[in-house]
Specification:
- The protein is an alpha+beta fold.
- It is about 35% helix and about 25% strand.
- It has nine helices and eight strands.
- Strands 4, 5, 6, 7 and 8 form a five-stranded antiparallel sheet that branches.
- Helix 1 crosses helix 2, helix 1 packs across helix 9 and helix 2 packs across helix 4.
- The radius of gyration is 21 Å and the shape is globular.
- The two termini are about 40 Å apart.
């Protein structure tokens, strides 16, 4: 069974990324699936103008979002050796909040969400949530929540973990020191993984694209490289017209030499302003 992230999540992710880049020229990290799933859970429990605002922002109605979430999670039930992926959801409801058994049941069935009742006024609640995130991400994220408003009534938390082995691994002995051009045009010396092979590759006057599959080719990393140094927002401007389907359709096998830096991502942001600008003001 193929794993397909809904197109609406990708389109929403692109629009959301554009909003983020309007206020920051720093590197940003966005998971369209995580955002889409969290909004889908919120939509399933909303009504009236709030529901309409969430559906408008997400680009799909709540019923369709729930059905797509169920199919997405079903696609993770069988994974190839060498690949591990966990996308987990949880709902943390204030102890005094009237319960809705049908909503909780729907979240468990379609979003595979854990549902817990907590006291948001107790510091231990932050520890509980962070421990849950750390468990799902195998310790990669240990502090997702720093503080919670004691008057909160519901917290929706999504955590995603992925670990994959390359279908065609890089040889550690081929790692080299090489010049790397940053978005500002500066050049720095970094350690680059390197290999010569046949790759799925495409190019045009603006950018180059290469797809690197993980074990058994059910998941892959798609890397886009601009032809000239660009800021994150500048890169988004040239890359946004290229849909994922369009890029994948033009990839062809080509032999070449690839050099790619090892990298890590540590990113945190308050997303309220971006969601409000995208039409979710009613939900806040």
């Amino acid at each position: 069974m193929a794993v397909l992230i809904p197109q609406t999540h990708l389109e929403f992710g692109s629009r959301f990324l554009q909003q983020l880049l309007r206020r920051s020229e720093e590197n940003v990290f966005v998971s369209p699936a995580s955002l889409g799933l969290a909004l889908g859970m919120a939509a399933a429990g909303a009504s009236g103008e709030t529901l309409a605002a969430i559906e408008h922002t997400l680009g799909v109605d709540a019923t369709v979002a729930t059905k797509r979430a169920k199919r997405l999670f079903a696609s993770f039930d069988t994974l190839p050796p060498g690949v591990a992926i966990e996308i987990a959801n949880s709902l943390w409801a204030a102890s005094g909040l009237p319960s809705s058994p049908p909503y909780a049941a729907a979240m468990r069935e379609s979003y595979r969400a854990e549902v817990r009742n907590v006291d948001f006024g107790r510091p231990e609640t932050i520890t509980l949530i962070n421990d849950w995130v750390a468990r799902i991400t195998h310790g990669q994220i240990r502090s997702a929540v720093d503080q919670i408003d004691p008057s909160s009534i519901l917290a929706l938390v999504n955590a995603t973990y992925f670990h994959g082995l390359w279908e065609d691994p890089f040889d550690a002995d081929d790692t080299v020191d090489h010049d790397f051009t940053t978005g500002s045009g500066g050049v720095t010396r970094v350690r680059l993984m390197a290999k010569s092979a046949s790759f799925e590759y495409a190019e045009d006057s603006d950018l180059q694209a290469i797809r690197l599959p993980y074990k058994q080719d059910r998941f892959s990393l798609l890397v886009l490289l601009p032809r000239k140094p660009l800021s994150p927002s500048g890169f988004h401007d040239i890359a946004s017209p290229y849909s994922l389907e369009r890029i994948m359709a033009v990839l062809g096998h080509r032999r070449g030499h690839l050099r790619m830096p090892k990298f890590g991502i540590d990113y945190a942001a308050d997303l309220t302003a971006e969601l409000q600008e995208m039409g979710m003001g009613r939900a806040f």
